[in-house]
Amino acid sequence: MKLLVVNGPNLNLLGIREPEIYGRKTYEDLVAYIKACAEQGGDEVSFFQSNHEGALVDAIQQAYFDGVEGIVINPAAYTHTSVALLDALKGVGIPFVEVHISAVDEREDFRRVSYVRQAALACVAGKGFDGYPEAIEILREHHKGSVR
Ligand code: CA2
User: What pTM was estimated for this model as a whole?
Assistant: First the structure.
């Protein structure tokens, strides 16, 4: 499969602050970990991180033109606010899984709201970096089912 992993605002700060919530590993560590897992399963993966909502929308739209078959997205704070990301994900029609490093449902009330979740295949939250390979596995299973 051709996969895109999208990470939203402030995830470039991983490993720098709030290690009790997000761990001690960096964004670069996260990318290397996901790349190794994806490639082990024979998938091609690319990565995009931005602190800007419009840039995330552009990357999702570009995925459509690039023939991406599955998206793993951690929209970070935009999870809880962004109709634009939901519209982009629905617009391109690429199957996607929502991921959160922390257990969003066990934190502040505002983190329980997700605009993108209604269109996601699944949401994986609270599993740290391991949530990303789990999301890829969900996309693989879905892909197998849809090409059979
Ligand atoms: O748990 C997640 O993955 C989140 O998507 C992370 C977002 C947060 O707004 C969501 O509610 C849950 C925040 C990402 C910020 O990451 C930082 C990492 C290190 C230091 C500061 C921020």
Answer: 0.97
